[in-house]
Protein: GNAT family N-acetyltransferase
Organism: Geomesophilobacter sediminis
Amino acid sequence: MDISIRDAVADDFEIVVALDDGSKKDDKPGYWRGIFEHYVYENNPDRIFLVAEKAGTVVGFIVGEVRAWEFGSPPCGWVFAVTVTPEVRELGIGMRMFDEIGRRLKKMGVTTLRTMVDLDNKRALSFFRGIGMRSGRYIELEKHLLND
């Protein structure tokens, strides 16, 4: 299978917006403009935005970064977006992107990789568990703020 993984570039914007089928944002292009600004245009070495190509066509992406400020934890890698187009899922593309972002983050000195997944997103949970991710030492807590 002819799959390559590379850094995202400005020309990838439209296809990334189109591939983002899981977003519930009303303004997906606006959201992704902000992501491209921080992860593609600014050239910050702690931020990684990769795309996977099959035969020259973008078929997936993964976005992550090094963070060190959450709850006093040491620096760790975070993956906050990953998707592969449905036509080529189950071919190991997501795993290859995850492995590549993991290699890059490890070179930056981190030894832990984290993400957050909606409990109702069975596909994402299955993917992350399938590549070896497990519950970590922190638990997300939330409270819904109601209008008074």
Q: What stands out?
A: The beta strands are 3-7, 47-54, 57-67, 76-84, 113-114. The longest strand covers residues 57-67. The chain has one domain: 3-130.
